[in-house]
Every structure is written in C-alpha cells, then in structure tokens.
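Job type: complex structure
Entries:
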Amino acid sequence: MQDVGYIPLFLALVVSVYSAFTYFYGGEKGNGVLLESARNSLIASCVLISLAAGALYYSLITNDFQNEYVASYTSRDLSLVYRLSAFWAGNDGSLLFWGWLLSILAVIMVLQKRDIGRELVPYSAGVVMCTLAFFLIISLFIANPFQRLSFVPPDGQGLNPLLENEGMFFHPPLLLAGYVGFTIPFAFAMSALLTRRLGDEWLVVIRRWTLIAWLLLAVGNLFGAWWAYVELGWGGYWAWDPVENASFLPWLVGTAFLHSIMMQRRRGILKIWNMVLIIITFNLAILGTFLVRSSVLASVHTFAESPALGVAFLAFIGISLFGSVALLYYRSDELHSEAEMESMVSRESTFLLNNLLLVGAAFSILLGTFFPIISEAVRGVKTSVGPPFFNQVNGPIFLAIILLSGICTLIGWKRASVKNLVRNFLWPTVAAVILAIILVVLGINNVAAIVGFVVCAFVLFTILSEGIRGTIARRRMRPQNYLSAFAGLILANRPRYGGYMVHIGVLLFAMGVIGSSVFNIEAEASIKPGESMSIGRYVLTYEKMDNFETQSKTTVSATLSVSNSGERLGRLVAEKYFHRNHQNPVTEVAIKSTLIEDLYVILVGWDQDGTTAFKVLINPLVSWLWIGGVVLVVGALVAFWPERRRRQERTARDGEDV
Amino acid sequence: MTWFLFFLALLTFAFIAYPFYRKRLRHAEYQEDGQLVELLSKRDTSYSMLKELEFDYKSGILTEKDYKELESRYKRKAINILKDMDSAQDGQKIGDEIEEQVNKLRHNNVGKGSKVSDEIEEEVDRLRGEKAVNKQLDDQIEEQVQELREKPRYCRKCGVKVREDDVFCSRCGAKLI
C-alpha cells in the first residue's frame, strides 16, 4: 500500500504547485482557460490526497504493521474506531490530515456559488494552494506516514492509553479543522491586498468562513478541556500548557477579528487593523500546529521529536509573516479609514477597546508560553512560568473584556447620550448590585469572586434586557404574542442574536471558571475498606477494591459509597489502568456531577495491607463550563446560518440557471 | 499496481489539460465589474446599518435626535452609493439618451430662436433632473428599508396576509385600502 499512498501524494504536490502558479498567473492575465485548468488541478489535488488518506486508513484497518506509522500507533487489540482515530494520533498522520482538510476546504471555496467576491477567488486559491504545497512537502519528505519497515512486526506498539477516550474522536480533528479553517480568511485577505480590492467585499466573503473556523477551534478546545477533566485525572480542565495556549491564541485573535470586521463593515474604519489581525490569526494557527507537532516546549501533547519539522515550520511562518506584512505595508495607503471615531463613549470605542484587550491577552499568553525559550536565550536557564502568572494576568483582562461586551451592546453608534446611558444601564446595574448584596449575605467573602460574578451577571442582564426591549419593540411593530415576537426577533437578525447567545455561553463558562477555581476544595486520605473520609458535606465510605484482567490491560477499581449531608447518593468507582504496552498507568476518575458542584475522586495508590490513598475534590459550577459551551455552539450556529434574503436570491438565480 | 498509478497520473493530467482543448470558454465567469460589486456591498452595508439604527432606536438605545441624524446621514450615503451604481451601470446609456433628445429637438426646431433653446434646456433639465433622480432613489431606499422591516400587510376584513401590491384580498375578495 505504500505506493498507493505515497505516489498520489507526490502527484498532489506537483499538481498543487502547478495550481498555485496557474492561479496567480491566470488571475494576473485574466485568462479564463488558465484559471479553469488551475481549478481542475485544485480539485485533482484534493482527489489525490483523499486517495492517499484512504490508503492510510486501509493500512490502519488491515493492521499493516510493516507501515511504521501503523506499527507505532496501533495494535491488534485496539478496537476499530480507535484504529481509525490513530490517523491523527501521531505527527505524520495529523499533518497529512491537515493537508487533506485544507484541500477539501479549497474545493468548497472554489465551487461555492458567489454573489460577490468572485474576482478574489483566483488569488486566494493560489495562497491556499501554496499552503497546501507546504504541508504536502512535509508529509512527503519529513513526516511521511507511508514509511515502510524492513521487517513485519507481529504486533504494533498500540495507542497511547491516554488517547483511548471518546475525546480522541473530537478534540484533535476539530482543533486541526479550526487551524486549517483560518487559512481561507487569510487567503482572501491576501487576495484583497494583491488585487487592491480592499473594500467590504472580502469581509463579506470570509465572515462565515471565519466564524466556522472560530467555532471549530472553540469546540476543539472545549473537548480538550473536558477530556483533560475526565481523563488526565488531576482535577482540572485547563493547565496553561503550551499546546493549550497555542490553540487558545488564534482563537483569541480570531475573536478580535470577528468583532473588528463589524466595525469595518458598518463604519469603514480599522481596515489595516483587520488585516493585521487575520495575518496574526493565521500565523498563530500555523504556530499552534507546529507547537503540537514539535517538542520545542515541554507539553503533555508532544509525542515525538523532529528537528527538521521545526525548521520547516519556522521557515514557513517566517515567509508567510514577512510576505503578508510586506504586502500590507505596500498597500497601506489604500487602507485609510472612511470615518473617524467621534466619541470615547460609543459602540465603536468599546469595540476597539475590547479588541485591544483580546490582543493584549493573546500577547501575554504568547509571552508566557515562550518564556522558557526567551529566558534560555537571554540567561541560559530554561524558566517556565506557571498557571499563577497566566491566571493573574488574564483574569482581570478577561473580566474587563466581559464587562465591555455588556456595555457595548447598550451603547449607540457614534456617541452615547447620558440620558440613554442611564436608561439602558439602570436595571442591569440595579440587578447586579442586588446580586452582590445577596452574595455577601450568603457569606462569600472572596472579593475577586464577587466582582467576577457581579460582572458576569451585569452583562447577562444587559443581554436579557436587550432581548426584552427588542421583543417589545417588535411586538409594537406587528400584532403577535411575545413568544413569536421573540423568535422572530432572533430569526430576523441571526448574526446579532447569535452573537448574543455566544456571549451568554461565554458568561456561563466564565461563571464556571470562577466557581471552580476560587471555591474548589480538596482532601487526601489513606483509608482501609469500611473506613470513611469526609470532604465538605460529603462522606465517602471505601467499600472494596477489585482487579480485572483483560487482553490489553489490568484494571484496579475502588468502589466508594457516597452520601451528602446524610443522604445516600450511590456508588462511585475510581479506577487505574495498567496497560500491557505502556509503562505509565492511566487514572480513570469517578465524577458525581450536579449543577452546583462536582465530586471528583482520584484513586492515587494502595498498599499490600489494603490501605488505599484517595484524592477527592469538590469543583463547584464545573457543569456550567459544558452548558456554556453548548450555548456558545448553538449561538455560533445561529449566527452562521445563512440569512433568508440571500438564500432566496440564490434559489431564484438557481431557478434561472435551470 | 504500476499500471494503476500510471493510469492515475494520466487521468490527472487529462483533467488539468482539458480546459485548454475545450472550444467554448468560460471566460466571462472571471470577468466582473469590480466597481459595481464594491458598490453593491457598500449599499448592503448601508441598508443593514439603517436597519440596525432603526432597531436600536426602537429598543431605546438611541435617542430620537441621534437616530434622526444618523438615519439621514446613512440615507444620504445610500443615495450617493445608488447614484454611483447608476452611473457605473448605465451612465453611458443616460448620456446617449440626453444627446438623442437634444438632437431631436434641435432638428425639429431649426431657426425658431431662443424658445427652442429654452425648450432644450428644459428637456435636458428634465432628463438630468437631479431632483427626480433623487426622489426615485429615495423611494428605492424607502422600499428597501420597508422590505427589511418586513412589515406585512393584512386584509382588514379576514386578517389574511396580503402582498404589498394586491388590490383585492386573495381569500375573501375584499378591497384592500
């Protein structure tokens, strides 16, 4: 199967280089024949890469252990679904996956029916094909997933046991898809610069592409957090690990970009800023891929070391960064703003401030992530900065971002009058103050947490009050009941209300973060069967320990019965897996989850005499992280859904075509 | 296997080279009036801004004074864009029409003195008629904004939803006011 994988991949490289060249040349000359040939080669490269991907899948399914990649990441006892997911378990496969996804997105991009932006397609397809060629070069010459061994091993080494979790099906591919997705907006931005079509056109074209890439990255990160929480067994969901940061960075700058393109569309301002943001986002996405796939920084995510890969990635980032910034510089004269900010208290200024905070947060995280390398270069000592740095710097920044997101929606364009400010902010402020008083009365004395909750609640109230006003306004405009007025309000303005739903999702998430990081408690105890330990209102009684042998692993499980304030809640089973092929045991935590708090039990170890060590945590409000995530996804999909008017136009035109 | 790969390479090459051998070109697909597209997207932006301003006003975020001022500003902007679109689309056509009319008048009234030039001026004014064009554009914007507002019309007798241009109700036949 080596040739069926490798040779199509090689052909795809040739074809994509031809496609990139022909797109640029044909676009320059306005030659339709060349452009059509370029398009055909783009489609051909997708088919060829799909063939190569199919060959790798075939090797994974058929246990073709002479393939080095298959032997390294699977074994005979691995179930089929995990064998398939091994496609992105290692370097070589995930980089091929990157290229494959990009080629599919490229095909969608060129075949999409467009009302506007058609002239931008040749150059943006050219940029995409250059990026694709880079990934194909890597797959062919540095990280080849079709490498053959000189012998046929009887069995493979198996998948890293940590990866044997449902998260494996979602977290890596979604994150990679998010990274890949940002290539398209970047390509259109470059195309706008190259063709000097620097108006709104490219922004209209890329809005939904950016949104979906952003959403994929968000969902990928959420799955990562959930996976870490249930599988890694240290009680948390986010550790400011370099690779986590790497996927958070393009998301933050992408968020800033999504908001600032609204400014350009509405007011014709921030044109250069938008270009800068998308250039940064794309390069951070490539950097993210690079950090996952090299071991420049120590992380739980890196599984192999390959210096050549690092050099190749740095070269690519250097070229793309230098090229795009130079292009932006040469076109900067044509990117002047059409209007000026008129007041410090206006929707524009709050948007801009929010943008700066998002980029500022991204910069601080970037600095913290690369601090080990910087400190090694400057002082010769590799010093890492830990979670306290990230939390202390970013906590206030994120709180300010959240606060501004609430203020922004209630401030009018251009300038806000005092009368309006008072009218719009009165009730949310009153509600937030009441909440603050309730929190103090309830005995919460952590100032940071109170401020955090109050800010989140204030913003939540502003969004709700805006929804209520909108519903009332809409009901005034036409006779209908409140429910259908509310539904109509959302449907008539999906981007706006989808955005608000995303904000609500972020708020719920933020409350989860505050609750679980400020009020979490933990306890450790070594107890024998029959003995109990207590944490908070919970009492855990250790019942028994069991051993199971399966073909691939030994499972040790400890059963505990749990009661809360004397009321029996049932049993929890905390486990440890000892895999035959891997040295480190895997901890399977037991979690009892409610909307208020999670009881999180880790089996730490045991003695011959039956004494068993447990670590138990109470993580308040963790469920709200996942609920917030779901709300965020729904909101983003509402905003992503095409608007009715455009769809109607399209169907009308399709009808004509027929 | 070798044959398969050889065949694959051949097929790829044929697919890529095909456009060079095809007789009918899809040249036009890649040629588009850039200026017009740009104006179209600007027009849409103004419309959505107008819609948003109205919404902000209705839900109390903007005061009436600010709303009126912003609305008229964005309407003016939209008018200018529509004018530019007209001149980009059929500027040439209008010019030709004016010339034609002028020539016709000149031809019909040779030697009839100043009255003719007055008439010509009048005619030209009428054709060039800024006001008329403005009015028309204003109406067009109103119509678009109206459409965006999605304010449906109902039959007063039976309450069924009717089209904007209907004279009689489609269900009960009552005359619509």
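Summary: The CA atoms of residues 601 and 616 of chain A lie 5 Å apart. Chain A is about 65% helix and 10% strand.
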